[in-house]
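Appendix B, example 12.
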Amino acid sequence: MNLPATGRRVLVSGASRGLGRAVAQAFAANGDRVAVHFGSRAEDARVSLESLTGTGHVLVGGDLANPAQAAAVMDMAAEGLGGIDVLVNNAAVNSRHPLPETSYEEWVAVWRQHVEVNLLATANLSHLAARLMIEQGTGGRIVNIGSRGAFRGEPDHPAYGATKAAVHALGQSLAVSLAPHGIAVASVAPGFFATERVAPRLEGPEGEAIREQSPFGRVGSAEEIAAAVLWLASPAAEWSSGTILDLNGASYLRS
């Protein structure tokens, strides 16, 4: 298998802003061509697309919670790029739902949404991408965006923590299954990092406490997470297949 270090065809799900945008930018700067996926934020996704260096990038939209639309997204990406070499499963939802404050009806709905988007969409896109990579015969990479919360617990976001733990487990199962085809699968488990979505929390009363979670006294950046994703998708990272890479500034240590 001869996966190149650059010039690859990359699908990044949930790339309209935040980490997804940073990941798309990192691959584009590496000389890869990127399919920028969005669910509902078409205008933000166009901003992401226009921010990419190089040429040959494409925009693909669809609700990944719908299996048929997930398949359509993969078809559009593969058609626009001429195939798929790398999949980054970044799309996710994260709604606050602490059990003591959440009605049963809301609890059921939130859990269903998290499972459909965070876990099932990741599984479905991984299947679709891997089958394309197998047909191409050139190997590939799948990188999943997990979370520190899968290990330390998420009392206010339990469905998020649980589905991210499942994403980690999925990645390890696929790493074993797909290795004979030259496809490496890995996950990153970021701690708190700055994006537009969490800016009000960092700027508000809890901001200092969040920064103090790390002995570095700060939160991470989307660019730091994206750099790790780019490396895990590189030819040099094949032997890291199956890994779950902690990216949390020593805010949560495990062995």
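The first helix runs from residue 18 to 29. Strands lie at 9-12, 33-38, 58-61, 86-89, 140-145, 183-190, 193-194, 220-221, 244-247.
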